[in-house]
Design brief:
The radius of gyration is 18 Å and the shape is globular. The strands form three sheets. An eight-stranded mixed beta sheet has the order 4-3-5-6-7-8-9-10, sandwiched between helices. The longest helix is centred in the N-terminal third of the chain and has 24 residues. It folds into two domains: 141 residues, Fructose-1,6-Bisphosphatase, Chain A, domain 1; 110 residues, D-Maltodextrin-Binding Protein, domain 2. It has seven helices and 15 strands. The relative contact order is 0.13. The model has no long low-confidence stretch (mean pLDDT 93). It is an alpha+beta fold.
Length: 262
């Protein structure tokens, strides 16, 4: 455990610097430097944030593996793997919307478990963290999931994938279920932010399909350590390398799954 504590301490020493870089860079006029698809953007900040994080990790933990959204895939020889989204919510960011996040998870490759997660929300100056069996925190204060017990009184959040044309029927089916059975559905445009806000009790439920490991790794452990539950959409065991997640305050989880199976 001391190895993961050291990694937590080290990444916390640089995260505010990366947050400040993102806030400053968002004010630039020509942010977009690449398009992965018609609506899937890459900005200067995506690349710059990832480079800062990767360079720092390589300097401090040269034997660790790294998986980053913007193409970093480094195979190390240690038991630890950093799973990084340097800027989750790129479309928001490019449109000057302040809903975006940095997401960093650390996987123990021996146990196949995420042992540490960090989600930083630069504009809010909030840093969410969780270490296995140690609870979840926002700015060093402990957080817990909501205690909402009635599905109709819950607030859900979700996101829509870039390949939405291929997924449109499933998207509408799931959205209809949540619109009819909850108080409302929100979409912030950042899965990492959504997961952090479920852990913090702002949202009761988050679901999304067609996600990547870097979207979920940090948020998954933060929610678990805050007292919530995560799974696949059908209720089976969550897998960070399987492209979907259903997260809730745990009280509502079984009822949600039963609705989704109808």
């Amino acid at each position: 455990m001391k190895d993961i504590i050291l990694r937590e301490q080290k990444i916390l020493s640089i995260i505010e610097e990366v947050m400040e870089y993102l806030k400053i860079t968002q004010n630039k006029i020509d942010l977009i430097i690449e398009k992965k698809g018609e609506i899937d953007l890459v900005t200067e900040a995506d690349k710059g944030s990832e480079k800062r994080l990767i360079d720092f990790i390589i300097k401090n933990f040269p034997l660790d593996s790294i998986l980053g959204e913007e193409g970093s895939n480094i195979k190390g020889s240690s038991n630890y793997k950093w799973i990084i989204d340097p800027l989750d919510g790129t479309t928001n960011y490019a449109h000057q919307i302040p809903l975006y996040a940095i997401s960093i998870g650390i996987e123990n490759l021996e146990t196949k478990e995420i042992e540490f997660g960090l989600i930083a929300l630069p504009v809010f100056n909030d840093i969410y963290t969780a270490r296995k069996n140690n609870g979840a925190f926002k700015n060093n204060s402990k957080i817990t999931i909501s205690n909402t017990s009635k599905l109709i009184e819950s607030l859900t959040c979700t996101g829509f994938p870039y390949n939405r044309k291929d997924e449109i029927e499933r998207l509408f089916k799931n959205l209809k279920i949540f619109l009819l059975n909850t108080r409302g559905v929100r979409r912030t445009g950042s899965a990492a932010l959504d997961l952090a806000w479920v852990a913090d009790g702002k949202f009761d439920i988050f679901y999304e399909t067609n996600l990547n490991p870097w979207d979920m790794a940090a948020g998954a452990i933060i929610i678990k350590e805050a007292g919530g539950i995560i799974s696949k959409m059908d209720g089976s065991e969550f897998d960070v390398y399987f492209p979907e997640i259903l997260a809730s305050n745990s009280i509502l989880h079984s009822e949600i799954i039963s609705k989704l199976q109808l």
